[in-house]
UniProtKB/TrEMBL annotation:
This is ATP synthase CF1 delta subunit. It comes from Synura sphagnicola. SUPFAM superfamilies: N-terminal domain of the delta subunit of the F1F0-ATP synthase. Belongs to the ATPase delta chain family. One of its GO terms (molecular function) is proton-transporting ATP synthase activity, rotational mechanism. It comes from the Eukaryota. GO terms for cellular component: membrane. It is found in: Membrane.
Amino acid sequence: MLLSSVVMKDYFKNPTYSDKQKLKLLFVIFPGLTIPVKAFLKILAERSVLNLIPEIAEEYGKILLDLKGIQTVKLVVASPLDESYGALLLSTLKKITKSKTILLNVFHNPKILAGFIIEYKSILLDLSILKDFSLLINEV
């Protein structure tokens, strides 16, 4: 997917590639684009704003998830979760977010000794040991 590729994001942000080249690449990568989408991309190219494609795709993805009632939650862990913990965490997140479906984005952070950090919308819940140790060190 265009969003998850750092190389593609960098390509579209790079001003040394013309919008014509970027448009041609999109048509090659996605040969089954509908006529309205092709027209939209051509307009972006004509206005020299194809560099906005990654942001447009990200916002479109958010709108689509919202329309489908899917909540996105970010989870930062020290090590892979045991399957039983993952199921419990997922059911708890469904209750908290009042959603039937959760898209759980899991990230690994080796600086966390234990526990995890949850980010949902603008709320950050830090249940990691790293946080506790850093607070202790600041007090000493």
